[in-house]
Design a protein that fits this description.
Layout: H1 2-17, E1 21-29, E2 32-39, H2 47-62, E3 68-71
Parallel strand pairs: 2-3
Antiparallel strand pairs: 1-2
């Protein structure tokens, strides 16, 4: 599962990079993907929308068992 998630993150990365942001994979646990938004995405007021609308929809289309994506700040 983790390899598939990492593959999908690599597919999404260029879109985040275009706006000066990036994404870092943290872990997969109990149906949730834990990531850290970095760069411009870390302070963006639309990060919840990015996670809940764009990223979650994309991941669920590829891995239907995904329950959610959690942005962690480390």
């Amino acid at each position: 599962m983790e390899e598939k998630i990492k593959e999908l993150i690599e597919k999404m990365r260029p879109y985040l990079n275009m706006d000066g942001g990036d994404i870092e994979y943290i872990k997969y646990e109990d149906g949730y993907i834990y990531v850290k938004l970095i760069g411009a995405c870390s302070d963006c007021m639309y990060q919840d929308s990015t996670i809940n609308d764009s990223l979650l929809d994309f991941f669920k289309s590829e891995i239907p068992d995904i329950k959610g994506i959690i942005n962690v700040s480390i």
